[in-house]
Each structure stands twice: as C-alpha cells, then as structure tokens.
Design a protein that fits this description.
By secondary structure, this protein is an alpha/beta fold. The chain is built from eight helices and eight strands. Helix 4 runs antiparallel to helix 8 and helix 6 packs parallel to helix 7. It is elongated, with a radius of gyration of 19 Å.
C-alpha cells in the first residue's frame, strides 16, 4: 500500500492573522489524519510554496499525495492554476502519484459550521425571525458553477433557519454586489434586523471590506439592527471536511 499524505493548498494572504489561521488549520488536520503527514503550500504571497510542500511530503516518504485545495467553490484556481503546478511537480518526480479532492463546497461539515456561525449571531438579534433577513456573502467569481454553488448554500441555510429570508450576495466579480443588496433590503421596509454572514475561510482584506460595507449601510439606515457573523475560521469542522474530501479519513 502506498504511503499517503495530504498537501493542503491555501491561496495565501498578506494578512498576518489570516496566515496564522491557515497554519492553525493545518495543525487541526494533522491531528485528525495522523499518522499521515500533512504539508501546507501556498499559491502566492508566502512560503512554503506548493512545490516546497510537495518536496516535504517526499522527504517524509510519501508515495501518494492527496491534494486538498482549501477552496470553498470550484473556480480558476481549482481548475487551472493548481493542476498546472501539480503537473510540474509530478514531472520532476514521476514515481509520486496524486489525486486532487473537490472543493469544500456544500460538504455537511461546512454547512454545520456555517449554521453555527449564524446561530451564534442570531442569539444577539433583538427582533423576531419573521422580521430578520440573512445575507450570505460570497467572494464572487466569474465561474458560473461557483455562483450557483453559493446560491444553493443559501437555499440550504433557508431550510435550516427560521428567518424571513436568506439572500445571496457577492463581494466582487458577479452580481448582486453587497452594497446594492444591503440598500435594497433596508429600503424594502420588510426587515428590522439584517445579519450579514461572510462565507469566507479566514481573516483578510475581503472580510474587512464586508464589515466596512455593512457599517456604511448601518450609518445610512440606523433604524435597522445590523449584525455581522464570523467567517468559517480554522475550526475542527473545517479540518473534518478537508479530511473527508481527501478520503484519507
């Protein structure tokens, strides 16, 4: 049987907290799949790079690598960038085999984690569910599959929550954009409270931008209670989703 290991791939960020959270997630995953080794590589901005992480697994005696892209939805990185880098790695080490797991998408553990974040925030809501809206905010992508996946996630949250409406919005690259969504909700007169939930992995520029856009809406519409929930973060449930996607657990 091949000696197996996991190559956890992150996008990379200049944000120090987001970087720390990525490596914290690696620690959770390492505990979960032990004794299989876990190496972490980043697409850009930081080290270790993906080839460096690949070489680390080789040094650990791994002969088959389960590649786990830390991506919520399938888009350009999962379909093009990462496979291209992996092909180059394997070209230099033809004795090593690998497979690439699917993006985390709507894995049950991801849904459970998103619902935990939402429930924690709704506990602070001062208004009844039938006057409360939830806005699920995705990063945004030009890929239609990624956009559709985000909408389906919102439908699942709708079925599992008791709020009046769950609305999908995006930070960039696709419509509807978050500022427009928040303005339409506030002007509708249908809601006394709005929960904005960033469907993001870690701290970083995008999360701060979503918080700022929500704060702008709150300043324009002070009669509405505005709440923001936490992003997914380096939670053991996130590590569980990764491990099960790879098939190593």
């Amino acid at each position: 049987m091949n000696n197996r290991g996991i190559l956890l791939i992150g996008h990379g960020t200049r944000n120090a907290v987001g970087t720390q959270q990525f490596f914290e997630l690696q620690q959770h995953l390492t505990k979960l799949v032990a004794p299989a080794p876990v190496a972490a590589g980043l697409l850009e901005f930081q080290r270790p790079t993906i080839p460096e992480a690949w070489n680390q697994l080789m040094a650990d005696g791994v002969t088959h690598i389960h590649v786990a892209p830390l991506l919520l939805f399938a888009a350009g990185h999962a379909k093009q960038d990462i496979p291209n880098i992996l092909a180059e790695c394997q070209a230099n080490h033809s004795n090593i085999t690998f497979d690439q797991s699917r993006p985390l998408s709507r894995h049950a553990a991801i849904i459970d984690l998103a619902m935990q974040r939402l429930s924690n925030t709704l506990a602070s809501c001062q208004h009844p569910p039938d006057r409360t809206a939830v806005v699920m905010v995705g990063r945004g992508s030009h890929d239609p599959c990624a956009k559709a996946d985000m909408r389906i996630l919102s439908e699942i949250v709708t079925r599992r929550s008791s709020v009046a409406e769950v609305i999908t919005s995006f930070y960039a690259m696709t419509e509807p954009r978050l500022p427009d969504t928040l303005e339409q909700i506030a002007m509708s007169g249908r809601f006394d409270a709005v929960v904005v939930q960033p469907h993001l992995l870690f701290e970083g520029r995008l999360n701060q931008a979503i918080l700022d856009q929500t704060s702008d809406a709150a300043n324009r519409h002070p009669s509405v209670q505005w709440l923001t929930s936490g992003y997914l973060g380096p939670d053991p449930l996130l590590a569980e989703a990764i491990a099960k996607r790879t098939g190593i657990r």
